[in-house]
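Annex B.
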Amino acid sequence: MNQLINTVSSAGYNSEVWIGLYNQINWRWSDGYTGNGAGYRNWKTAANQPDFDSADQFFVSIGSDGQWWDDYSFVKHPFICYRETVRKQVVRLMMKLEDSSVDLNDPAVKADLLKQFQDRLKDNGLSDVTLKWREQPDGKVFHKNQKKN
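C-type lectin domain-containing protein: predicted structure tokens.
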């Protein structure tokens, strides 16, 4: 929280700013983050926040004291953007098929596998991950291991 306040102060702001938390039934972060720490809140409880004073208070502002309140969408505040560095990582998979008739290089099978991986990552708090297959020069993603004699 101190880092956030220092960042805002060093940019020359000493009033409210938007912090990227918004409400659509439940409070959530605009970058989609749902992992560790995503549930942290620092509401201005002395002012009964969030108070949902009107039907248009769906966004969150932070003041110089570091406390939060729900605010109107039409109010113009500076805002804070944060995005971690995109990191490319290659993962090799070895899969053992129970049904040898399944063609892992079939576009529908590859799409289904990617969706399953994406869903599993999302379940573990990683909702902003892009997955794609790396095709080999022959156009295939998967190759059967050749048994060595």
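The chain has two domains: 2-72, 87-149. The mean pLDDT is 80. Further annotation is deferred to the next reporting cycle.
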